Automatic annotation (TrEMBL):
<protein>
    <recommendedName>
        <fullName>Ferredoxin</fullName>
    </recommendedName>
</protein>
<dbReference type="Pfam" id="PF03860">
    <property type="entry name" value="Csp"/>
</dbReference>
<dbReference type="InterPro" id="IPR044543">
    <property type="entry name" value="YHJQ-like"/>
</dbReference>
<dbReference type="InterPro" id="IPR005560">
    <property type="entry name" value="Csp_YhjQ"/>
</dbReference>
Length: 110
């Protein structure tokens, strides 16, 4: 990603990509295989929402959309909610990645 000259944006794109991959992978693999509270509708929807908003945030940043800062604010909120949900059921790695993304998105949103 050397074409990104703004270090804050580069960091945010990387954090969002990592969060997107983590949430999608964990939802489709760990959660589906574990069952129980891992596939509870609220948790599973939150994981999928987090993956989707992270991917969309990356896309808007890469095209330098004037709406990217607004979406980063929403992305931070979704990532925080997902992190809390993941923590409650012992998904500490996912929670950590979501929190890192939320922090980066909050910085990008300002």
């Amino acid at each position: 990603m050397t074409h990104l000259t703004d270090p804050k944006m580069k960091e945010c794109v990387e954090a969002c990509n990592q969060c997107y991959q983590m949430c999608l992978h964990e939802a489709m693999n760990h959660c589906l295989e574990s069952g129980g509270e891992h596939v509870a509708p609220d948790h599973f929807r939150l994981m999928m929402s987090c993956a989707e908003v992270c991917q969309t945030s990356v896309n808007l940043m890469l095209i330098h959309s004037p709406f990217s800062h607004q979406l980063c604010r929403v992305c931070a909120d979704v990532c925080e909610a997902c992190a809390s949900s993941c923590e409650k059921i012992g998904m500490s790695d996912c929670a950590r990645v979501c929190r890192e993304c939320a922090k980066s998105c909050r910085a990008m949103a300002t």
